Amino acid sequence: MDAPRRSGRLTLKAPLTVSAAPVPGTATTNNRPDKRKRDKDDDISDSPESTTEDFKQNRDSLKVLQKKSKPVQYLIPDVEKKETTFRGRLGEYDVILSVAVHLQQVTLVLRLDSIKKNGIEWVKGLGKKNTEDLLVMIQWNEDNNIRFLRVSSEMFPFASHEIYGYSLEYCAQSLARVGSLANKYGHRLTVHPGQYTQLGSPKPEVVQSAVRELVYHCEMLDRMGVGVDGVMVVHGGGKYEDKSATLARIKKTINQILPLNVRNRLVLENDEMCYSAEDLLPLCEELDVPFIFDYHHHNLNPSSIPISAIIQRANAIFMRRGIKPKQHLSEPRPGAITLMERRAHANRCENLPPELPDDMDLMIEAKDKEQAVFHLYRMYNLHPVDYASLRPPEENETKETKGRKSNKRARTQAGKLSIEDE
Fold this sequence. Notes:
Order of helices and strands: EHEEHHEHEHEHHEHEHHEHEHHEE
Distance between the termini: 50 Å
Shape: globular
Radius of gyration: 22 Å
CATH topology: TIM Barrel
Number of strands: 12
Strand order of the largest sheet: 5-4-3-10-9-8-7-6
Largest sheet: 8 strands, parallel
């Protein structure tokens, strides 16, 4: 157990040592036994079409790998104890670092070659395997008190492609099992389509590509049977040298082009470069589209509106729509100074925002994924943590921006760093 909290004083103890077994192709795996006791006939859901066979096969495979692996010991440092009245859900996204479950994604470099070499049925097979792995991820999350998950956009590679795209009908039963398990445990599943989902582009082909991407994500959630809380988060996108005109195009796309079921799941989020909360809130209020407040983006691209007022206005839209409010939290990496450095997410978050409502779904956008959630659980005493699931933080976290953000073309315009429209 963690050290007891003491008012006004940081209590330290000797670091904990935990054992885990590495799995080939992954970082590590959790080798603890399942502490839950279930009847052998306990099914994933009450649906007659649902079976536990895929789930059991994945869990059995995980156990076999664990038995063949040599245990590794990790030194888990203590954490600073802090106080909060927050009792909402913390979310993690895409993959679980400490479990041998990694979605079968196809990289951008291999995309067209993969289809030409292996065929579209091979690609669709990856999507089917991903749904099976997602069952294991949801069960693991339940066992570890994580009940809020962002599902990867790469679940079904090429599904929204203009030429090679395909329906998810072939995977309907598997997706229904995923949704049944999530609904059984009361887990929230959401998605966040990528940066190329540009609803306000002046190019019709770019808008149509964005619509296809949203239709794909919506179909995935619909076939899971996820309720209204299963939202699709997108940013405003590029400004295209005229923010007002772009906002007008976003409004037109939402009002006139998006199918109704897609629009019903759409939510907009402030970003760190182009569209602040102040830019998007009026549009969201006019269209009754929920607004996601991102604390990190607000710190980099602030509004003149106080955070408390932004949250109040955003929550009002969620309440009108009958959707559970949701926010995003991340922090810049240690030592980051420039705007481009500060954009990159730190491995873990060290503080919950003082403005955070007590009953909020808060997505933790940190590189350490579920380990970042556990870090906050331990700091704020939010949930019990199984120490066999813990991994130590990286000792020398870099402040460098890696990945797609560093590949964008930056320029200085009117004394402010901005991103050129792509």
